[in-house]
Amino acid sequence: MTAKSAAAAARATVYGYPRQGQGRELKKAIEGYWKGRVDADALRATATELRRTNWRQLAEAGIHEVPTGDFSYYDHVLDTSVMVGAIPERHRAAVEADALDGYFAMARGTQDAAPLEMTKWFDTNYHYLVPELGPDTVFTADSTQQVAALGQALALGLTARPVLVGPVTYLLLAKPRPGVAADFDPLTLLDRLLPVYAQVLTDLRTAGAEWVQLDEPALVQDRTPAELNAVARAYRDLGGLTDRPKLLVASYFDRLGDALPVLAKAPVEGLALDFTEAAADNLDALAAVGGLPGKRLVAGVVNGRNIWVNDLEKSLATLGTLLGLADRVDVAASCSLLHVPLDATAERDIEPQILRWLAFARQKTAEIVTLAKGLGGGTDTIAAELAANRADLASRAGSALTHDPAVRARTAAVTATDGRRSQPYPERAAAQRAHLRLPLLPTTTIGSFPQTTELRTARADLRAGRIDSAGYEERIRAEIGEVISFQEKTGLDVLVHGEAERNDMVQYFAEQLTGYLATQHGWVQSYGTRYVRPPILAGDISRPEAMTVRWTTYAQSLTAKPVKGMLTGPVTMLAWSFVRDDQPLADTAQQVALALRDEVNDLEAAGTSVIQVDEPALRETLPLRACDHPEYLAWATEAFRLTTAGVRPDTQIHTHMCYAEFGDIVQAIDDLDADVISLEAARSHMQVARELAGHGYPREAGPGVYDIHSPRVPGADEAAALLRRGLEAIPAERLWVNPDCGLKTRAWPETRASLENLVTAARTVRTELSAS
């Protein structure tokens, strides 16, 4: 096909779409099902209607090929585990008794069976359920869900393309199940897994699929020759099937690198690549392999992870370059649109001109369609859209919101000493122990306590004007009092105020900093039914006034025990926002760090002796290629130190991280120079404690003994067993006892019981240590 005919054949598509619905109908239906208010048929009906609505919106916008299989009740990787029969033995009876309840048991756990481990999906804030595999794992095909979704779309008269997690990525994301040697490599199961994928492909072909997309995002990471050989084998075997759909292999989030020539030679009909995160690299690599003659290229030129309007002329230039490199070039977002909110037009509180800078899923869909039209028919066919786009880009670039001279002068004046504590850790530790006088194995929580219905109602009433600020603050004051009282009665050693006043650990601060925009309806799935509204980091950042001092000081007035000041760190403020794309991330991080430094210093001046600056996103934001790690980790750790280094030696600085692979960044954790770090460890069976010990981590640490992402209540014996496991790696004088993460999403009954058991476990082990 010539470049001209390839352009004329250009089509618009997407890889996935937000699942929740305009009013988060899916979240409400699932949580209603868990509470017994919604039956299974009603839940399935809600899901069916949401899929139908999504597909119709896409088709009406001009998307030529809609995705199926991207919708999920909880997580698409968990759906893949069901599809291939990788059900943990502890959940098998539940799945066989009731498939839906068993599915949720794997995701959330039950009182008798722990859930699957949960961690971040590459460098996003989406969490997936980690497959558990072993050398005796037997895979069996169950394509029921995938076939049903395809059938629903085809019945609506739509052209549909099922989207599956690819077999290599699935195995690379998996871990050895409990009881299996840690060095077991799930990729050794590939030959056992491929026949199952072959059966699913056959089933989808029989059901009417012309194309099936196999997502292989793990291939944008550094891969060994053995792993690349596995990729070649997988797609040789799947591509060699006689009765199958056409195969589109998709990879995104970064450059494909050494995997590109492997896939280019594979007997598949198409590739889908990301031309936003690493456009030049993927373009050069594609040209180096001689393009994709005879194949379909789906070009991800619209950023599927951020919310800024596309530069249409720049994207058209990229698409034009690609025309000569493939038989057919289609236009898409760089990845699934589940990472962005649904519709920017729902936002009523953002200034209309600024709103034109933003593109959520529906607006990105329109951009994709416009680009496909321009590629196929020429720029004259989209002249009005291009003119409007140029005006929007110019408006943003020239806005006073994006450039604050005072902020830029302050960042220019930062020196290396601003990011260094005045004394080394051993001297600080001695001063802190003398000042705080904590027991061995001190107990604490991560920060938040349950956000009750009453709290959410009070917040909604304040927004709606049904109560005034005085009435709202009275409710917050009462909640803080209850939280402090409970912690004292339970016997916790370092308390928190519970964060009753905070809607979200990033949004709360963003709403008080200049340069941020907040949304009212910009919900994005984080995991399961947990949705967040990432704020939009649009301009230069500063702190007009103190943000947390008032409520922290009030909580401290209620108790003689230390109350932690709680802040969200600069890297997490970036990672869990939609960050500006018009300057380096390091510059933005430094601005946020200076604003937070002011808050840390004000907390200390108000008498706060323990200050926690959470950085759960430090690992999440780690670049996917090792060669890019040093630069990122240098500015990320420097931003944390800039935030925290201005305090006295006897002020104890904590940080917290959760649900990520910490072994990759142990040196960076050390480089933060925090006095205490708390980390998720319960689901991963204290793996992080061993990783810290292996590194020789010299400071204090609290690997979690209570998995807060499950409704089950761990017994005191279970928590004590985990604590003893932690002591095998970390000396008692440096070990803290705490949950994995904050308690915002939990209910009070399970929180009370779990924390009481946690304190009992700590006391039990203290007694054992004193007797030994």
Could you explain how this protein is built, in words?
The structure is a single chain. The chain is of the alpha/beta class and 772 residues long. 44% of the residues lie in helices and 12% in strands. The strands form six sheets. It has a seven-stranded parallel sheet with strand order 1-5-7-8-9-10-11. A five-stranded parallel sheet has the order 16-17-18-19-20. A two-stranded antiparallel ribbon has the order 2-3. Strand 2 and strand 3 (127-129) form a beta hairpin. The protein is globular.
Give the topology, please.
Blueprint: H1 3-8, H2 25-34, H3 40-61, E1 66-68, H4 76-83, H5 89-97, H6 99-108, E2 118-120, E3 127-129, E4 132-133, H7 144-155, E5 160-165, H8 167-173, E6 175-176, H9 190-206, E7 211-215, H10 225-239, E8 246-250, H11 259-265, E9 270-274, H12 279-288, E10 292-302, H13 312-322, E11 326-333, H14 352-355, H15 361-377, H16 383-397, H17 405-412, H18 425-436, H19 453-464, H20 469-490, H21 507-510, E12 514-517, E13 524-527, E14 530-532, E15 536-542, H22 549-556, E16 564-568, H23 570-575, H24 585-605, E17 610-614, H25 629-644, E18 652-657, H26 666-671, E19 676-679, H27 687-695, E20 700-703, H28 716-727, H29 748-771
Parallel strand pairs: 1-5, 4-6, 5-7, 7-8, 8-9, 9-10, 10-11, 16-17, 17-18, 18-19, 19-20
Antiparallel strand pairs: 2-3, 12-15, 13-14
